[in-house]
Amino acid sequence: MGALTMYLSIKLRRGVIPVIIIVSIIITVVIIYNSQCINNPVLSKQSEMIFKVVVDPGHGSIDTGTSYGEIYEKDINLRVALLVAEELEKVNIIPILTRKKDKLYMNSRQKDIRHRPEIANKNKADLFISIHANNFPSSQPSGSQVFYKPGSGESRKLAEEIQQELIKLRQANQRSIKNGDFYVLKKAQCPAVLIETGFLSNPTDRERLTDPVYQKQLAIALKNGIINFFQSRLSGKRQEKTLRTNVSLESNDEHPSYQLYYLTDSPTGILLVKRKLSFPTNNFFKQEYSNLSFKEIMIISAINQLLDPPDNLISPLPAKTKIDDVKINDGIATIDFSKETKTSFSGGATVELYSLEAVKKTLFSIPGIKGLNILINGKKGDSIGGHIFLKETVMK
């Protein structure tokens, strides 16, 4: 390696930066980028919105955790964690449980506690959520409390979002969030929190924590806190200011990512007006979209935004348009519009031409969409306005 570096430096010594310096710069940039992705997982979600959350039911098997009589913390933790996993699946978030039964990894407390954060790291999880129950010598303390990974701003933000949802669930959950010097939090390479769901030593908390109805409510609160965290990161990192630019139909402008195209009239004729497509952060976690991919959700959002044009702009689609179905296979998007798209269209041939171009440009601006099939009420080869028959279009 030394001989190679010397050789390259000699060959490039006349006014050119030695290759070793260039290599060092590249390595530095890669390290900085990777470190940003680790500290802020949403930055790595550029192509597909896939979220993985490790749900850790504390303790298990011979490690019962705290207890009150025959009520064991390990059992409550597991029941709540399984409910959290169910709730996350409903909103298209992938849950990864550190245990699904009453057991420990290799039946060893030491090996088990080391194994739990390893699950998050090996799966490149976005979040690590550890669920526990509290206890105290006195029966007076009550309420939930969230601890976050020390020195991690993202973990603190996650703790804040979860705590706010716990307060909505029950006003007694007013205990302050704190950093927690816990092994599982420190070793997780992603934002990590530990939730003490309540005190088994407190009669009211104990009754709630053993109540299946409250356990379900608790799981929903934790899910909502997780969603709020993801949405705050998405809106903060992915949203961009609105941009307006006039472009003609004939222009061969390069399609930037995520654009909307509306219609407007001018003295020279109809023009397409370009606006920035907003990321539908709320839609990513809707139960009705749980079986859709990120691109399919973006298509639905794009169409809905086209149907709600800004002032002085015109939607390329009739106001009564509905989406009956959206599917993407191998980059080819198939959109089935309702019959109202055809029966409510009132434009002439030129408007039809520009309207279809606006829809195509909008959907082709979504990265990964290479082709487009437009159906009307499930029918291929139909026409919106009677002038242009719809056929599969491939992006040029």
TrEMBL record:
Domain of life the protein comes from: Bacteria
Domain GerMN: 299-385
Alphabetical list of InterPro entries matching this protein: GerMN, MurNAc-LAA_cat, N-acetylmuramoyl_amidase_3
Spans traversing the lipid bilayer: 12-33
Matches recorded under Pfam families: Amidase_3 (PF01520), Germane (PF10646)
GO biological process: peptidoglycan catabolic process
Transmembrane helix listed as a keyword: yes
Entry keyword annotation includes Cell division: no
Keywords of this entry: Hydrolase, Membrane, Transmembrane, Transmembrane helix
All residue ranges annotated as the MurNAc-LAA domain in the record: 117-227
GO MF terms, alphabetically ordered: N-acetylmuramoyl-L-alanine amidase activity
GO CC terms in record: outer membrane-bounded periplasmic space
Protein name according to UniProt: Cell wall hydrolase/autolysin
Species in which this protein is naturally found: Iocasia fonsfrigidae
